Amino acid sequence: MARSALLNVMVGAATKAGRALARDFGEVEQLQVSVKGPGDFVSAADKKAERTIVEELSKARPGYGFLAEESPAVEGSDRSHRWIIDPLDGTTNFLHGIPIFAISIALERDGQIVAGVIFNPVMDELYVAERGGGAFMNERRLRVAQRSALPDCVIATGIPHLGKPGHAAYVKKLAAVMMETSGVRRAGAAALDLAWVASGRYDGFWEDGLKPWDIAAGMLLVREAGGFVSDLSGGDRMLETGDICAGNEAVQRRLLATLAKA
């Protein structure tokens, strides 16, 4: 695929940070870890990856703003552009030696996500998308799965953990989806959940209580792979509400209806 200069910058930042993350993952027991909150750990690797990404992106586009997980938001001199960064989505997996985690970088232009990169350095899977240019994984064009009946589908989700609200409401939604699908999966990294919907591994995904850096790149990947993304009300306010539902047109519509009934 032909990449724009901006996408090349994003890929370069993700792969540079990813190489360091992969090394740290191999020595996970020796990491210096600080606790930010219940179930939400911040490692030295996480902070180092963010510094690397911010430095690389700032060198290429010094006027762009930043919205990143580990730092205060920065408004750049170019107010029409903003980087949205998760330097380590799946931190708990990382700290437990589970190789399901990723770097996620999105570029927002005038309120729209126009480019996204998700990189799992351990699996060596690089997902990229540009608005209007399609979605790719390691140069292979991606398309969402074509199954349309929920009983044939595997659906991904995120489960609220210790310290997050909404456990009882979530259990009702989970029960409703369990009764209508062939399986539900919880991998622990929303960015990869969306990338795997884009690649057809999952048929759909839903979660609430997310942050913009969890989903910004992934929702563009799904759309560029021919899928549909909305908030749980069927609107387009995912980055504001923190809830999301994704899949192909039929699955996303049916999944929304199932969750609404619950």
From TrEMBL:
<dbReference type="InterPro" id="IPR020583">
    <property type="entry name" value="Inositol_monoP_metal-BS"/>
</dbReference>
<protein>
    <recommendedName>
        <fullName>Inositol-1-monophosphatase</fullName>
        <ecNumber>3.1.3.25</ecNumber>
    </recommendedName>
</protein>
<keyword id="KW-0479">Metal-binding</keyword>
<dbReference type="InterPro" id="IPR000760">
    <property type="entry name" value="Inositol_monophosphatase-like"/>
</dbReference>
<comment type="similarity">
    <text>Belongs to the inositol monophosphatase superfamily.</text>
</comment>
<dbReference type="InterPro" id="IPR022337">
    <property type="entry name" value="Inositol_monophosphatase_SuhB"/>
</dbReference>
<keyword id="KW-0378">Hydrolase</keyword>
<keyword id="KW-0460">Magnesium</keyword>
<dbReference type="InterPro" id="IPR033942">
    <property type="entry name" value="IMPase"/>
</dbReference>
<dbReference type="InterPro" id="IPR020550">
    <property type="entry name" value="Inositol_monophosphatase_CS"/>
</dbReference>
<dbReference type="GO" id="GO:0052834">
    <property type="term" value="F:inositol monophosphate phosphatase activity"/>
</dbReference>
<dbReference type="Pfam" id="PF00459">
    <property type="entry name" value="Inositol_P"/>
</dbReference>
